[in-house]
Request: fold
Amino acid sequence: MLRLRTGSIRWIFAIAGLVALAPPGVNAAYLETPFAGQLFVEFVGANNGLLYLEFGLGTPSITSQQSERQVAIEMTKRSGGGVPTATPAVYAGDFYPAGSALDFYLYSNHLNVKRWVFSSSLVGTPSDAERTAFLDTDDSLGLGGSAIEALGPGDWILHLDDPISFLVDDDDDDFVVRVYVEPVPLPGAAFLCASGLVGLACRGGRHARRQDRVMGSA
Ligand SMILES: [Ca+2]
Ligand SMILES: [Ca+2]
Reply:
């Protein structure tokens, strides 16, 4: 008969606790990466009358400077409508391991009326603006109320509304962007991240790298 001593039982619970803590993904994130890799953001289309629209990663402070934010794409109004200043896919950071959380923000400035929406707010008490921007409240897309169209593993089209759209509609075409992960071999340090052994440290490192490397400038 297998007999476990009290010390052994403590170790089993301790190891089980570490395993439980190991997955670093945030369950309620807007998206989660299905595998480790590099994230890219690609402008698809837009239909809005905004003078300025900015799309990026994370949940920045509304008092932040643009240089402090993880800007991916920005649009400025020209004759004939709003167009992005950058159309190619832009690199938006390394995300290790699989299950990394992806949240986004939109910021608009129209005649100096500034508005923000954050996808991370959906897990709490989102504003009407945030629900309209990051969801499809009338299910016009037929995706069950989601604004996320999956093209394949780690490859999505986001049908977003601008931050002031809730005042007039929820047509899910104000800002359409593709977000996708390119799988890449894990470097040595990232292997440790993927193993969950040093998950907290890795998340901090990823954040710092994203701050350094994400496209966009003030
Ligand atoms: Ca919407
Ligand atoms: Ca709209």
Remarks:
- The first strand starts at residue 31 and ends at 32.
- Residues 32-213 form one domain.
